[in-house]
Specification:
This protein is mostly helical and 420 residues long. It has a domain of 105 residues: Serine Threonine Protein Phosphatase 5, Tetratricopeptide repeat (Alpha Horseshoe). Helices cover 75% and strands 1% of the residues. A hairpin with a 2-residue loop joins strand 1 and strand 2.
């Protein structure tokens, strides 16, 4: 047994003192070929510093061996030591047989730094040198896939599949095509590829994408089955719950949808979207107390979420809790880009509390936003008539009757006021 083999056996047995001793002996006594294999094994096992030590010893002996430089650079990248990695890669000349490999490693490095334009440039240079190499095309496809350039990734994956290759580096290209098409909104094409993948070969992401695609195609039963399987197999995959709930709701299974979203909140209690879904389902079940509680909890999680704010305010109006609504909305009156629904809701609240000056202030504020909304106009007409502002009442009646010309009551009111 070589010292390298003994060192690797020491790792398996957890004998780290013996490993360190045998590693030193291996570097002193084992052949270069065995040491190269040792460095590879150490890298695979996660002993990165030790792997670099062995590679560097070999590089001292073979300073022109560019493959060793790329191996060392790879390890440095995995350790986030990018400057060290680039130092080794920059030593590889364009004339080197390992230059393309160096470009691939550089592309990976720049992608980890989110310098995707530079990463793309390196891969395109590599492809120009070796235009028929699928692994380079695959790397480009993966780059485009990761940054959402799905049209480009589709073209590349299709090109590779035409060569008869369905998997590279444990990545299923059929799966990638299906997910890419789904992200492009081409759901028919997407499902054609996704359904080719055996359930046993689907990871959680692919199961989710398949369920999502079924949902977009209104195949709700298939979506429910896929999302339910995913939930059972990977209950911590939080994104499943809102979409499974949507599928059940689309199937008119409201109570089941509500239970699922409650489960989802147990997995991800900071997801405001799920609180909103829970609120909407509670409303459908006429469970107004729970509906209010979910909105309040969502408001605590994200106090500036305008959808939560408006829905909670609307609910206060529905429950005729006018003072509570005013108190709640007071926190947001100085907020930039406030939803004008807030002003309308305040106007209605003050109107019902017979605080007419405050009501007028917010009706005045709202008119410019809702002059084409018949519901608002009707409420405003009633207020301004009661307030005694006949001119504004007539103006709003005319706007209202442009939208609802068949409303006889409002027509008679306008005629009466104009005669007056």
């Amino acid at each position: 047994m070589t010292f390298s083999e003994e060192a690797l056996e020491n790792i398996q047995d957890g004998k780290m003192d013996d490993f360190n001793k045998n590693l030193i002996k291996a570097k002193e006594n084992d052949s270069d070929e065995i040491l190269y294999s040792l460095a590879e094994e150490l890298y695979t096992l996660g002993f990165l510093d030790e792997s670099i030590q062995v590679y560097q010893q070999l590089l001292e002996k073979y300073p022109d061996e560019d493959q060793i430089k790329t191996e060392i650079a790879d390890i440095y990248i995995s350790q986030d030591k990018n400057d060290e990695a680039l130092n080794y890669l920059s030593q590889i000349e364009k004339s080197s047989p390992n230059y393309v490999n160096a470009l691939m490693v550089e592309a990976d490095l720049y992608q980890t730094q989110e310098l995707t334009d530079v990463s793309e440039q390196k891969l395109l240079e590599a492809e120009k040198i070796m235009p028929d190499e699928d692994i380079i095309k695959f790397a480009l496809g993966e780059l485009y896939f990761s940054i959402g350039r799905y049209e480009d990734s589709v073209n590349i994956y299709l090109n590779i599949i035409k060569h008869g290759t369905l998997e590279i580096s444990s990545v299923n290209l059929v799966e990638r095509l299906g997910v890419s098409y789904a992200n492009l909104g081409k759901f028919e094409q997407a499902i054609g590829y996704l359904e080719q993948i055996k359930p046993i070969d689907m990871n959680s992401d692919v199961k989710f994408e398949t369920g999502f695609t079924y949902l977009q195609l209104n195949r709700t039963n298939d979506a429910i089955k896929m999302f339910s399987d995913l939930k059972d197999e990977d209950p911590q995959y939080a994104t499943t719950y809102p979409y499974l709930s949507d599928a059940l709701k689309a199937n008119n299974q409201i109570e089941e949808a509500f239970k699922v979203i409650q489960e989802g909140l147990g997995v991800d209690k900071y997801n405001v979207n799920m609180y909103l879904k829970a609120y909407n389902l509670a409303i459908l079940l006429e469970d107004y107390d729970n509906a209010e509680n979910y909105l309040k909890e969502g408001n605590v999680i994200d106090p500036d979420n305008i959808t939560v704010i408006v829905n909670l305010s609307n609910l206060y109006l529905q429950k005729e809790q006018y003072e509570e609504n005013i108190k709640f909305l007071a926190n947001y009156l100085e907020t930039d880009d406030m939803d004008p629904q807030v002003y309308w809701n305040l106007a209605i609240s003050y109107y019902h509390l017979e605080k007419f000056e405050d009501a007028k202030k917010y009706f005045d504020e709202s008119i410019g936003y809702f002059k084409n909304n018949s519901e608002f106009l009707k409420q405003a007409i009633m207020f301004y008539r009661e307030y005694g502002d006949i001119s504004t009442t007539i103006q709003l009646l005319k706007e209202y009757l442009k939208i609802v010309p068949s409303d006889e009551e409002m027509t008679f009111m306008l005629e009466d006021l104009e005669e007056y």
